[in-house]
Structures are given as structure tokens and as C-alpha cells.
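When time allows, look over one protein, given below as sequence and C-alpha cells. The question is which stretches look regular and which look disordered:
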Amino acid sequence: MLAALLALPPARAAAQADRPRPGALLELSPTPRAIAFGGAHAAAFGDEASVFINPAGLAPIRHVALGASVEAAVDDSRLGVAAGAVRVGRFTLGFGAVGLDLRGDSIAVPDSTFGGGSGVATGPTLSAYNVMGAAAIAYRRGMISMGANLKGLREYISDGSAGAYAVTGITGNLGIGLAFFDIAAFGFVVENVGGTLRGNGNRYSLPKTLRGGFTLNFVDPQGSIRLMTTLDWVRPPGGDAYWVLATETGTVHRGFGILGRAAFAAGRGTTDRRDASFGGGLVLKSVRIDYASQGFRFTDERTHRIGLRVVF
């Protein structure tokens, strides 16, 4: 098992959600809300998740947005995400970081001292992690916003020998947005422009993906009832385009409320993720508590993400 893991890029162990390839963190939804939306976030503007996806979506943030989330992923791995954005005049500056600990492992053999009912670790210990940092800037004038980000990645798998898998790289996204007040918004983003990972004498191309999205609020989001839908068209590298339809509904009264979210993907054939995802959130004035869950096609395991956001 150890030899097999070392022979593969860490995308396999990351969540068993995609075929083995580098750049696993680039394909993971960064926040509980984004997971519950099935990744449909090209036009879901106004929160810190846009730091990683469509940087133009940072522009509607009024003052400051901060968020952090943790996930108990499959295969006992752990994921942590932190992001934030601050408005400075017509510009919005964003930052974020993602860390995926694939957890150390080692070979175990039966221990006769305890009747063979337990084991002791022996041999090399596997150490594996993926990390990513992001910085973004968005500019807004009227209804139009534009944004760009830079993302730095490092992927590492080692058993302590000289043959570790260790690669690094820099990539970026370019995005635009068009918002009609609080009613509707369009968004388009090109992900991973010119990005490659380098290491171990090799170069790995990162997945350049095109996304276009449309968001519509059926009722005024400043009122007590919330009913919003967002639709994304996604064209991944080397695969057929697919659609993701997501909705968010609930009630918020005098700054307190509850929201439910769900999404369904149609035609997505390049991932092991199930087509449906769901989640929800609590609104406590400027504080948001969010939860989301994602299942996989070939296992009964699910990921569970919980996060805390503060918006001013």
C-alpha cells in the first residue's frame, strides 16, 4: 500500500474524489457554502470564497468578510481553510490559505504480546500534505467588476527516503462579474491560467477550467424571506462541459435566521463526487455558521465541512 501511494500524486488520497492528478486543492470547494452549491460559485458573489474561485466576486463585499472552515475528509484526512477580504475604495483585497493533511501512516505487524489482537508500527512512516495560498484583487465600477488572483501550491508525499514526491507551482484565475443590484448577477472565470507544478524533474500541467454562472434572487434579499438560485456551466480540461444548479432558501428576521442549500450536477463525468450535495447555515447578525456534506460515487463515506464567517 505504501509503495502504491508513493507512486501516485496526492490527488488520489486527497478525497478519492478525482482520478490521480496533481492540483487536487484547486478542485476542492473552499467553503461549506460552495460545497453545498456543488461548486457553482462563478456568480455567487459577496463572500470570501471568491478569493479562490472568481476573484471578481469579492467586489460586492461592503467592508470586511472573514471565514474559516474545517473538514473531516475521507481516509481520515483533515482539511482546513481560512480566507478574508477587505474593501478599499473601489478595490477589494483578498487572501486565503488551504491545508490538507493526508495523515501519516506506517506498516503494522501483529504483536504476540497481546495475543495477536493488536499491532505495532514498523518500517517507514508515510508523510503527506497539500498546501495552497491565495491572494486576490477585485475592482468595481458601477455594475461591472473584474478580478485576478495568484495561487501558490505545494504537494508532498514521502516515506523519509530520497524519493519523495515534492512539487510546487504558481497559477492564477481571471474573472469578471456583472451585478444588477441585489437581484441578479453574471460571472465568468478562467481558472489556472498558465499554471504548472514542477518537481522531481517533471512538470505537471494544472487543470485550466472555464466557468460561467448566473445567479437570481426571486425575492428581495433585504427582506425576511430568502430564495436564490445559481446556475454554473463548467468546462473542465479534457472533458465534456456540465451544469450545476444550486438553490439557497430560508428566512432571516432582524438579523437572525436559518438557511438551507442544495445542488445537483448534470453531465459531470470527470469526478467521483456524487451529483447531489446539501448544507445549511445559521445567521446570527454579522456571524454565519455553515455546514455542508458531499458524498462519493464508489464509497459510503461522506465529507463534512463546518465553518464560521464574520461579515461587516
In short: The chain has three helices and 17 strands. The helical segments are 2-6, 11-15, 32-36. The chain has a mean pLDDT of 86.
